[in-house]
Amino acid sequence: MIQDLGSHCYHNEYHPVPPKAGDCILFFQGRKVLVKVTEDTFSFPDFQYAGEYYPQIYTSYTYLFSIDQTNYYLIRDESLTLLSGYTMEDIIIFRNLGPQVNGFALITGYQLYNWYETRKFCGKCGHPLVPDTRERMMYCPHCKNTEYPKISPAVIVGVRNGNRLLMSKYAGGTARRYALIAGFAEIGETLEETVKREVMEEVGLKVKNIQYYKSQPWSLSSSLLMGFYCDLEGSDHIILEEDELSEAQWFEREDIPYDDYDVSLTREMMIRFKKGLA
User: Fold this and answer.
1) Using CA atoms, how far apart are residues 146 and 87, in angstroms rounded to an integer?
2) Above 70 in pLDDT, residue 210?
3) Coil, strand, or helix at residue 257?
4) What pLDDT score does 176 carry?
5) Gap between the Cα atoms of 208 and 233, Å rounded
6) Across 46-50, average pLDDT
7) Extended beta strands in 19-75, E state
8) Would you say 95 and 44 are in contact if contact means Cβ atoms under 8 Å apart?
9) What is the mean pLDDT of residues 37-54?
10) Helix, strand, coil proportions of the chain in percent (round to 5)?
11) 218, pLDDT greater than 70
């Protein structure tokens, strides 16, 4: 999965140190990121190269995290879009281009970029927020309100019916892949209750034997995904919630249309079922 970095080590401790020459720059505009694409790989600009053209980036930056000995910083200087050899690409490149460590850095940085962009003013009194110097937090000097990065708990659900697995496609958007039932936890419910509610709401089915499998941070939705397998209880007749899903159907193990793992928990759960491991 996207967070499985092998020998690389991700450090999310907040240590806002000044950037070094080889540290990486993450520059976003909406869903686009500044990268250099070379065949099937991509890379970020570093301070040494970008600083030769735009030395002001050393005076205005936001520390994000580090991977191994490399620090990653958010830069908002729009002149970077003119940096020679680099282009603005859709963030979805993390699915198709390597290395995986860069894909993880991209979407993790994108989550923090979105958080900072939506935490400019205090939601309590409306005054400007300022960054704290000791931890990743935005602080209101006027009313003392504090804002921490948003992480939303959500479930991914593999519904089993004997030798069959329920698979679906989302309605709207650009998603064309098959997925599993998914949804965010609501206030006051357990994750197991979320599993039951989401399955009932989206496909009108009852489930039992809910078993936790594995979790995954998924930065595109600022969520922490928790995967569960469960078994169908009662009728297998699907009542589709068309506002949420465009399609839902039962697949025999051998007919699941994927053979390889990718960066997502959803795909891993599908493949494990196909291989008879779940």
Assistant:
1) 36
2) yes
3) coil
4) 79
5) 6
6) 97
7) 24-26, 28-29, 32-38, 41-43, 62-67, 70-74
8) no
9) 97
10) 25, 35, 40
11) yes
Residue 157: predicted pLDDT: 98
Compute the C-alpha angle 93/52/88, nearest 5°: 20
Q: What is the pTM of this model?
A: 0.94
| Per-residue confidence (pLDDT) for residue 28, from 0 to 100 | 98
Q: Report the alpha-carbon distance of residue 63 to residue 55 in Å, rounded.
A: 17
Alpha carbons 178 and 248: distance in angstroms, whole number? 9
- CA separation for the pair 226, 79 (Å, rounded): 40
Q: What's the burial of 115, exposed, middle or buried (CB within 10 Å: 0-12/13-18/19+)?
A: middle
Q: What is the DSSP string of 77-125?
A: -GGGGG-TT-EEEEGGGGGTSB-HHHHHHHHHHHHHHHHHHT-SB-TTT
Region 127-148: what's the mean pLDDT? 96
Rounded Cα gap, residues 224 and 216, in angstroms: 6
State how far the alpha carbon of 26 is from the alpha carbons of 39, 56, 102, in Å: 20, 15, 11
Residues 6 or more apart whose CB falls under 8 angstroms from that of 226 comprise: 153, 154, 155, 156, 191, 212, 214, 215
Amino acid at 19: P
